[in-house]
Amino acid sequence: MSAVRTETESATALSVQALRKVFPGTQALKDVDLTVRFGEVHALVGGNGCGKSTLIKILSGVVPADAGELTFNGRQLPAAELTARAAYELGFRVVHQDPPLYPDLSVAENIALGGHYPTAKSTRIAWGEVRRRASELIERFRIDVDPGTLVRDLPVSVRTQVAIATALQDVKDDRCIVALDEPTAALPAAEVGLLLSTARRLAEMGHAIVFISHRLDEVMAAADRVTVMRDGQVFAEHRTSELTEAVLIESILGRRADEIRGQRATVTAGEPILAVSGLSAGPVIDVSFEVRAGEILGVAGLLGSGRTELLTAIYGGLERSAGEVTLAGRPLRGGMGPTIEAGVVMIPEDRARGAAFLDMTVDDNMDIGVLNRYWRGLRFRRAQMRQDGDALRARFGIKAPSGSVEMRTLSGGNQQKTILARWLRRDASVLLLDEPSQGVDVGARADIYGAIRTMTVAGGAAVVVTSDLEELAQFVDRAIVLRNGRLIAQVSGEELTAHRLNELVHTQSGKPS
Ligand SMILES: Nc1ncnc2c1ncn2[C@@H]1O[C@H](COP(=O)(O)OP(=O)(O)OP(=O)(O)O)[C@@H](O)[C@H]1O
């Protein structure tokens, strides 16, 4: 899909020179140089905390730089002087993964709110004009949506398309620099393609696209060029046409790609630990399966297939209308308290939002839930707790100046890793994980599955829901596929490939349509 550009390079849209930014305890950007051209999709990749978001925040004028020069579409200015308004006027736009749209308003109303409401002579809003403009934009950006549809009824990828159209509505020429900040992180696999095509189409219109993602297959598919950042610096720039995913991984991590490949269980799985039989709960209908000691079971299914509800119902957070769940032969009767006590731990998808205590320190965030481990009679073993904190941060590659900095100062991916570390350090016999690698870099993803594997090798079992089918194929031992709440297939061995899972997830018969 990536266009190989053989013609002479197009004009420079954005040039960043010697950009620097220091936060207390961290030099987030160290003399960053970057050139992005009109007509290209330029990916920006790198490990969690390498400085991608800081760069985008500076370019959008919301965080001031310490030093450096910026040139937007031929207009140069000192980076420290850029304001949000100037960045906007110079044609810089950012669309985040969770665009701030109003769910209960229509597409047309959202577009109008993101620009200026056209008013009639009486200063009343000219609704006809609102709809006409929205229809024009929808057509221009080729979005498959009716302007009157409420945003809450749209698939996530279409919402992001609407956000892009909203951000670009007042642009006269096609000379914007559009930063798409992890636009696919929360997207189900089926919708990713649509968004990548949108990025390409914007580039073909003439805009310059800066595409931030940890999903390297998407980077390879959608980008012309990729800049790799490491530790606040630009480490390399590649053309994707001259690159393989393995080389890109090495460029990002400084480790060979095969060092981070997942490992399937090496010993035959043991006795069933978790048995689910005839379970119905919410959208889940009559689902039965077993997970054995030593096994990581994957769950594939589209958004709405019941995959999250299945985990929640096992965990006791969703009432069951039928069926039984047993742990090592003993019934788990529901209710989260007894389920946790029995040794089942669930790590939910929205963990960063729901479970990160931003004004507490990083180590405090990891210690919640295991504090009683450190009491010896009346003595609290603080030194041991600190030592364990250091070890955990090293094990999960959590980038922080120390364990005593506030959680809010960590990058998004490092917050995710901190919360995962909190849960993975508990003694669990069954782990239920919903999208464990969302927002984390390719190295950390392998570390997370490594931690899960350590737990299963010791006799535990894990059930993992993820929309990334490549990830399932790489890291789990066996997978079940859900559709419309029902279990439609179990896949293992040679059949466990992303391609096969994709077929099963999307087509009624499990055969290519
Ligand atoms: N407000 C802040 N105060 C202190 N340090 C900060 C602040 N914001 C960011 N940092 C630090 O700057 C570094 C770069 O963070 P940034 O968010 O740019 O990383 P990133 O590449 O976007 O990571 P991710 O892939 O996890 O989103 C990190 O070490 C982070 O902890």
Automatic annotation (TrEMBL):
Keywords for this protein: ATP-binding, Nucleotide-binding, Repeat, Transport
Cleavable signal peptide: none
GO molecular function terms listed in the Swiss-Prot or TrEMBL record: ATP binding; ATP hydrolysis activity
SUPFAM superfamilies: P-loop containing nucleoside triphosphate hydrolases (SSF52540)
InterPro entries per the UniProt record, alphabetical: AAA+_ATPase (IPR003593), ABC_carbohydrate_import_ATPase (IPR050107), ABC_transporter-like_ATP-bd (IPR003439), P-loop_NTPase (IPR027417)
Domain ABC transporter: 14-256, 260-509
Keyword hit for Amino-acid biosynthesis: no
Name under which the protein is recorded: Monosaccharide ABC transporter ATP-binding protein, CUT2 family
Lineage: Bacteria, Bacillati, Actinomycetota, Actinomycetes, Cryptosporangiales
